Amino acid sequence: MNKKVLITYISQSGSTREIAQAIQKTLNHKQVESILLEVKNVKNIKQYQAVVLGLPLYMFRWPAAGMRFLNRHKQQILAGLPVALFTGGPTEKGDDNEWKTIHEQIQKELARIPWFEPVALKAVGGKIDPVNLAFPWKLIPAMKNIPVNDLRDWDDIRQWAASLPALFQLQQTAIQKEGSPV
């Protein structure tokens, strides 16, 4: 796959950035050229053949900057630019209901942008570390006493990332077939 992939993310405390970095490393091992940028630093996506977007759920919503990113690049996405999406999930062990809730919230967020259909969607375990809390969470005294918890499954994340080049290629092939005369 001779493609340049944009890996972009939003990360307040660094957890989503670390996942994006692991995805980039995996793509590099698969000989896929990739660029890693925070969403706020992405000006144009025309030079990319695919996008991996990392949006954490904060209070069960994707950050507004993530929705702005999607809307700003809607035309390229609708024109067939494949986008894979990952989002943070539970931060506490043993709570299957939290996973179910995360998946429901992802579907609610996707329903807000019905034109957007990612070629791949992944909910990954989250991480919480009181030392790295961002504003406004670091102002809440009880948050400082939360134990460090990291449910990110790095093998699972790497496996998902390794599957992306083939998914991006399949998406491109499907678009080319749809657009070609019969």
Topology readout:
Layout: E1 4-9, H1 15-29, E2 33-38, E3 50-54, H2 64-72, H3 74-78, E4 83-88, H4 96-111, E5 120-124, E6 127-128, E7 149-150, H5 154-179
Parallel strand pairs: 1-2, 1-3, 3-4, 4-5
Antiparallel strand pairs: 6-7
Helix pairs in contact: 1-5
Protein model, in words:
The two termini are 26 Å apart. Helix content is 39%, strand content 18%. Helix 1 packs across helix 5 (154-179). With 182 residues, the protein is of the alpha/beta class. The longest helix is centred in the C-terminal third of the chain and has 26 residues, at 154-179. Helix 4 (96-111) links the parallel strand 4 (83-88) and strand 5. Strands 2-1-3-4-5 form a 5-stranded parallel sheet, with helices on both faces. It contains 5 helices and 7 strands; from the N terminus they run βαββααβαβββα.
In short:
With 182 residues, this protein is an alpha/beta fold. The protein is built from five helices and seven strands.
Keywords:
single chain, 182 residues, alpha/beta, 5-stranded parallel beta sheet, two-stranded antiparallel ribbon, 5 helices, 7 strands, 39% helix, 18% strand, globular
Helix/strand class: alpha/beta
- Describe the sheet with the most strands: 5 strands, parallel
The total count of strands amounts to 7
**Termini separation (Å)?**
26 Å
